Amino acid sequence: MPTASDLYGPDALRALEALAADACGDAFEPMRRAGSAAYEVAARSWPRAQRIVVICGPGNNGGDGYVFALRALEQGRDALVVRMPAHQPRPGLASRACGEFLAAGGLVQEFNGTLPVADLLVDALFGIGFSRVPGEDTAPLIDAINSHGAPVLALDVPSGVVAATGAVPGAAVEAGCTVEFIVAKAGLRTGAARDHVGRLELASLSLDPTLLENVESAAERLVPADLARWLRPRRRDSHKGRHGRVLLVGGDHGHGGAIILCAEAALRSGAGLVEVLTREAHVSGALARVPEAMVRATPDAAQPVAAALSGHADVIAIGPGLGQDCWGRSLFEEVRASGTAMVLDADALNLLALSPCRLPSGTVLTPHPGEAGRLLGCTVADVQADRFASAAALVERYGAVVVLKGAGTIIAAPGRTPRLIDAGNPGMAVGGMGDLLTGAVAAMLGQGLEPFDAASAAALLHSAAGDAAAAIDGQRGLLPTDLTPWLRRLSNPEFHPWT
Ligand SMILES: NC(=O)C1=CN([C@@H]2O[C@H](COP(=O)(O)OP(=O)(O)OC[C@H]3O[C@@H](n4cnc5c(N)ncnc54)[C@H](O)[C@@H]3O)[C@@H](O)[C@H]2O)[C@H](O)CC1
Ligand SMILES: [K+]
């Protein structure tokens, strides 16, 4: 089973390093270009930073740091290198870079628990060579960087972040900007990494792009470019039935809002007809809130539910507010047996975890990390330790398309390269946001997108709507209902911010 580390692990990047050295005809040249490119980003971003402290590790990331420091000296800045006593530069490239810095009059100071006064800190402690296996305790140094107060520029990877997966096993640098070298790293765009990278800048090191044709970069996984293509076709057929009949099932007692949010999102994402099957008690509230939806009450448990599922839905989404009591269980079993394209969310996923089975390939699962853990029989920490691997494992086990929610949503499907949503913000971590996504996925399926594209389009639409709403009134206090007008706006190509 492939994992992200196969793509961006040390072996892959070692190969990339060799490619870079061959392309430059000199093994030191990529390091010289990396340190210099990072300096250019610093000079542009912090033009008045005079006192620059570069924290160098023992490896080639540290080597980039020495090159950066030399460049800063040459440009008249007060550049100082600080390193752990144990972090003598490794023989070879890093040692050469350190030697050139010292030969130019550069100073190296051992870390003594605090960092000197600085206008800018440069994190060259660890790059792609960082592994989650705890080495000597670098946490005090990382904490000193994070508490210093000066802006932080990270070289290649914020130290303490696992580049291949986005996992943050311990202390990690919180950068204001991260300059990635050669390829955009998918791991830096998902999971906890998104809280550490700051603004991402890519330094290609002026390598010939054909050199990288076999190295898949995160850019190829980023959905926006695809979504614009999918959503570009304008609505043509004027018959509402031709834009998807979507049936939404859920809303047990006390959870009626979830299925109503789902219905609103499905309509705002372009579904033609939306039908809601919920508890009798929620019918009037649902109609009051979303009069465009046809809302029906499920029969009480005494009657077979199958009748309630009759009709000609193109897709059934089940789970928002479903609960796991006999009402929810019987609805779930009926839907699972219906043979209709399905979107399973929330309690439908929890019920699936209790009775796992292979699903029709057109099914879309939309778990958050907790639901993913239950579906895989592991902890949330295990899921987050390698989100790409976790998404792949869910696809492997259930045979469905998987939308692994959380920072940097990942969409995976059988036989497909996983996709990554490089959008969304922490303000979206509130109840009800997932219900919107479920409605959007159902709407995209109903409009004829194939499941992997439908899930990708909906996930981007959802995250972009969250970013658009947060850009106006902030992330704190962001509510699902703030997103629904944006779902409509951004599902129309003329409003796409990414084209
Ligand atoms: N890929 C390229 O084409 C280029 C890469 N460059 C830079 O090189 C680094 C990768 O350098 P590497 O020496 O492989 O590893 P790091 O410098 O990231 O790590 C140094 C060293 O740290 C030790 N270590 C690992 N994990 C831990 C831990 N948990 N605790 C303590 N110590 C740890 C381990 O011994 C590592 O070897 C890449 O990121 C780029 O910045 C080139 O300069 C540009 C081209
Ligand atoms: K770094």
From TrEMBL:
Q: Show the GO MF annotations.
A: ADP-dependent NAD(P)H-hydrate dehydratase activity; ATP binding; metal ion binding; NAD(P)HX epimerase activity
Domain (YjeF C-terminal): give its ranges.
223-494
Q: Which cofactor does it need?
A: K(+); Mg(2+)
Signal peptide interval: none
Is Metal-binding a UniProt keyword of this protein?
A: yes
Coiled-coil annotated residue ranges, if any = none
Assigned EC number: 4.2.1.136, 5.1.99.6
* Top-level division of the source organism's lineage: Bacteria
Gene3D superfamilies in UniProt = 3.40.1190.20, YjeF N-terminal domain (3.40.50.10260)
Keywords (alphabetical) are: ATP-binding, Isomerase, Lyase, Metal-binding, Multifunctional enzyme, NAD, NADP, Nucleotide-binding, Potassium
Q: Which reaction does it catalyse?
A: (6R)-NADHX = (6S)-NADHX; (6R)-NADPHX = (6S)-NADPHX; (6S)-NADPHX + ADP = AMP + phosphate + NADPH + H(+); (6S)-NADHX + ADP = AMP + phosphate + NADH + H(+)
Question: Is this entry keyworded Metal-binding?
Answer: yes
* Quaternary structure and partners: Homotetramer.
Known role: Catalyzes the epimerization of the S- and R-forms of NAD(P)HX, a damaged form of NAD(P)H that is a result of enzymatic or heat-dependent hydration. This is a prerequisite for the S-specific NAD(P)H-hydrate dehydratase to allow the repair of both epimers of NAD(P)HX. Catalyzes the dehydration of the S-form of NAD(P)HX at the expense of ADP, which is converted to AMP. Together with NAD(P)HX epimerase, which catalyzes the epimerization of the S- and R-forms, the enzyme allows the repair of both epimers of NAD(P)HX, a damaged form of NAD(P)H that is a result of enzymatic or heat-dependent hydration.
Protein family according to the UniProt entry? Belongs to the NnrD/CARKD family. In the C-terminal section; belongs to the NnrD/CARKD family.
Q: What is this protein called?
A: Bifunctional NAD(P)H-hydrate repair enzyme
